[in-house]
Amino acid sequence: MIRTVFNQGRRLIDFPLVKKHAVGASFLLVVVVLIGSLLYSTVSWMWDDQRLPLSKLVLQGDLEYVTALDVQRAFSKLDHVGTFMSQDVDVLQDSIESLPWVANASIRKQWPDTVKVFLTEHHAEAIWNGNALLNDAGKVFDGDIGKLHGERVKLYGPEGTSADVLATWHKLSQQFAPLDLTITSLVLNDRRAWQIILDNGIRLELGKESLDERIDRFISLYQNLGSDALRVSYIDLRYDTGAAVGWFPEQELEQESTDD
């Protein structure tokens, strides 16, 4: 009898505990469902194209050739510009770095509707093959030559030689500076022969070999020419020693003096 009474008492005590746990679990489930619904609604609202559109642009950087309008036009070519939450920054960066004058772009979003763009432009060192530009690292880019501020040297060379031609121009420019001469055009042709046009109109034919020695030979010759340098049309240095000098006709020189 005692055992039976004990079991009955235990059953009487267990029923309220079960009921209490069931109520607690139900309450927890309701709370989880409410929180989940709230999160879903919030995320859906934030990712809705009608909410938080990226509508403001802040452009930063020391810029000379790229404008805010250029950046806006780049963005307009995208199939879709999303919201603050949905838009991939890498997509925006790729679109801006496709602009001809842009060397590097850094983009970040600012809550709730702003895109901040920091740009670095290419520094145009030279005009390349007549229709492109070279930056200071020898990289070819398709900037608008008509927008250039100031004169640039004209460099020419086969594909893949831009960095070498630029480096050679830098080196030769330093050698010609003491003579008060400036290179206006430097050509590396398909046979890998060099040609130089100077700002005084003299054309130098240097060939493929012994470039340094031939430049030294020209410097020595030019220093000895004195005022006769004004009569020189070209100097051909493609010899083991010496050089061939081409002279302007006297009549042509007189006409040039008259025109001045």
UniProtKB/TrEMBL annotation:
Keywords: Cell cycle, Cell division, Cell inner membrane, Cell membrane, Membrane, Transmembrane, Transmembrane helix. Gene3D superfamilies: Cell division protein FtsQ/DivIB, membrane protein fhac. It is found in: Cell inner membrane; Membrane. The chain crosses the membrane at residues 21-47. It is a single-pass type II membrane protein. Pfam families: FtsQ_DivIB_C, POTRA_1. InterPro entries: Cell_div_FtsQ/DivIB_C (IPR005548), FtsQ (IPR026579), FtsQ_C_sf (IPR045335), POTRA (IPR034746), POTRA_FtsQ_type (IPR013685). It comes from the Bacteria. GO terms for biological process: cell septum assembly; FtsZ-dependent cytokinesis. Residues 52-122 form the POTRA domain. GO terms for cellular component: cell division site; plasma membrane. Belongs to the FtsQ/DivIB family. FtsQ subfamily. Part of a complex composed of FtsB, FtsL and FtsQ. Essential cell division protein. May link together the upstream cell division proteins, which are predominantly cytoplasmic, with the downstream cell division proteins, which are predominantly periplasmic. May control correct divisome assembly. This is Cell division protein FtsQ.
